[in-house]
């Protein structure tokens, strides 16, 4: 759908979306009056927009800056609409509409126009073309994560993520260490996301020779080859996670996944999914947030149950002796955090009040700390009218057998939405009875997909819980290991 307007209206008209109606151009009378009073030329909208952009960049706190922002916002509305149409065409089947993309683009442009327009040079291109590219990438990132070139992907890769990718690609330890060293050198020597030039490769070669004098020297072509191997491993790693997310969480068919990701055919997707299924029986946490179809719900209830359904009401899951290391402390100087704690105490006394529900949702989405976020989420989950903002809370019984004399533990796993590509995660182990304590020496370990230890917590005498808060990318795999007295239980998950 194309929305047209005359040149002399481009600086003071904007698109408004009305439910059930076609989008229309609306006139901003206040902005039109300002332009007329200041004598700006309405018949030359591009030149006027450039002039006001220059003023805004020079003096963003000028009393008239709010009008300059409104003029630019109106002028660029057509560009935002075209971007939303392109995204809707390119990313169909993901559950987002053209209107969703449009509103997000408008929000980005209105709230931070100088950020969107940063780097624009009128001598090198047209403003509309620049904004179109910039907004497409920004809106795409909100919903699907950053669009990255090969070298952009390598630039943003952490050492831990790179090691995981290389391990999953089958590289031996010495080969992994060499590639990681070269990538870190490249990241430190350059600032952009472009292929290294001959000078950079030579500098990496000298650095390697100085640090590894006993090893054979590396030529520029060798180094570039190793960097390409790192990119290929990262691409494979991200593709695998994306396939898992699309198939299990978005319910996209294997053929459509192959088409969207540019893979050779459906057989490629099928083989990767089969390897994922056969390697570990993993619980897909993102499904817990989207489990609306009865088949998914039944599958989850076979092993995991709702927190409020399985734990006895007499067990207050939010109280007890919890190690300080697992419970992030509140900065005593943070007035916002102190006020939030007081607010939570008041909410507990009147949990089912409608105002309490709204306050909890606010604390979850805009918390002063992660501890506050999870306290609010658990309280909201206990509300008589639960809200999706509370995320999903599941628990299962764990029996370590003779090691605990038959004492049953409760393993709680919770997941909260974080953004389009990741989720907040929370794991906790408690006794199944209200008056019991965890045995001293019970360990809770979180490991990565490659088996590397991410965190390890150990209970002490009279601890009632061990717990850990973290986050993960959608499609990322990890494991939880409970161990006591030589008995070990492993649970595997995919975010």
TrEMBL record:
<protein>
    <recommendedName>
        <fullName>RNA polymerase sigma-70 region 4 domain-containing protein</fullName>
    </recommendedName>
</protein>
<dbReference type="InterPro" id="IPR014951">
    <property type="entry name" value="DUF1822"/>
</dbReference>
<dbReference type="Pfam" id="PF08852">
    <property type="entry name" value="DUF1822"/>
</dbReference>
<dbReference type="InterPro" id="IPR036388">
    <property type="entry name" value="WH-like_DNA-bd_sf"/>
</dbReference>
<dbReference type="InterPro" id="IPR013324">
    <property type="entry name" value="RNA_pol_sigma_r3/r4-like"/>
</dbReference>
């Amino acid at each position: 759908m194309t929305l047209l307007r005359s040149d002399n209206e481009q600086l003071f008209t904007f698109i408004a979306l009305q439910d059930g109606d076609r989008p229309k151009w609306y006139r901003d009378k206040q902005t039109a009056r300002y332009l007329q009073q200041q004598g700006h030329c309405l018949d030359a909208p591009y030149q006027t927009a450039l002039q006001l952009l220059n003023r805004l960049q020079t003096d963003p706190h000028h009393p008239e800056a709010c009008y300059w922002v409104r003029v630019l916002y109106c002028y660029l509305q057509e560009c935002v609409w075209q971007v939303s149409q392109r995204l809707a065409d390119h990313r169909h089947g993901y559950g987002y509409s053209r209107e969703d993309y449009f509103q997000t683009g408008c929000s980005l442009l209105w709230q931070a126009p100088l950020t969107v327009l940063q780097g624009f040079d009128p001598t090198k291109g047209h403003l509309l073309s620049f904004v179109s590219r910039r907004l497409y990438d920004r809106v795409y990132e909100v919903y699907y994560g950053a669009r990255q070139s090969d070298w952009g992907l390598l630039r943003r890769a952490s050492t831990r993520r790179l090691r995981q990718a290389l391990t999953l690609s089958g590289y031996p330890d010495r080969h992994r260490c060499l590639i990681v060293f070269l990538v870190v050198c490249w990241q430190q020597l350059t600032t952009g996301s472009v292929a290294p030039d001959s000078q950079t490769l030579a500098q990496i070669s000298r650095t390697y020779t100085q640090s590894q004098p006993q090893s054979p020297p590396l030529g520029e072509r060798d180094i570039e080859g190793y960097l390409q191997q790192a990119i290929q491993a990262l691409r494979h790693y991200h593709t695998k996670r994306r396939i898992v997310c699309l198939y299990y969480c978005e319910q996209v068919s294997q053929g459509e996944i192959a088409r969207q990701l540019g893979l050779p055919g459906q057989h490629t997707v099928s083989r990767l999914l089969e390897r994922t299924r056969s390697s570990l029986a993993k619980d897909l946490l993102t499904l817990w947030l989207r489990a609306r179809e009865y088949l998914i719900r039944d599958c989850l209830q076979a092993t995991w149950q709702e927190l409020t359904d399985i734990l006895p009401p007499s067990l207050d899951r939010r109280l007890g002796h919890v190690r300080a290391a697992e419970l992030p402390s509140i900065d005593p100087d943070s007035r916002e955090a102190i006020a939030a704690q007081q607010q939570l105490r008041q909410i507990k006394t009147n949990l089912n009040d409608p105002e309490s529900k709204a306050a909890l949702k606010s604390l979850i989405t805009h918390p002063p700390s992660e501890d506050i976020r999870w306290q609010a989420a658990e309280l909201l989950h206990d509300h008589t009218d639960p809200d999706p903002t509370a995320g999903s809370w599941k628990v299962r019984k764990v029996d370590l057998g003779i090691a605990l004399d038959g004492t049953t533990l409760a393993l709680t796993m919770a997941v909260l939405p974080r953004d389009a590509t990741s989720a907040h995660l929370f794991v906790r182990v408690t006794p199944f009875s209200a008056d019991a304590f965890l045995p001293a020496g019970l360990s809770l370990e979180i490991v990565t997909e490659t088996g590397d230890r991410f965190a390890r917590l150990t209970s002490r005498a009279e601890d009632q819980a061990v717990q850990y808060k973290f986050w993960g990318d959608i499609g990322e795999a990890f494991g939880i290991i409970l161990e006591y007295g030589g008995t070990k239980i492993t649970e595997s998950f995919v975010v």
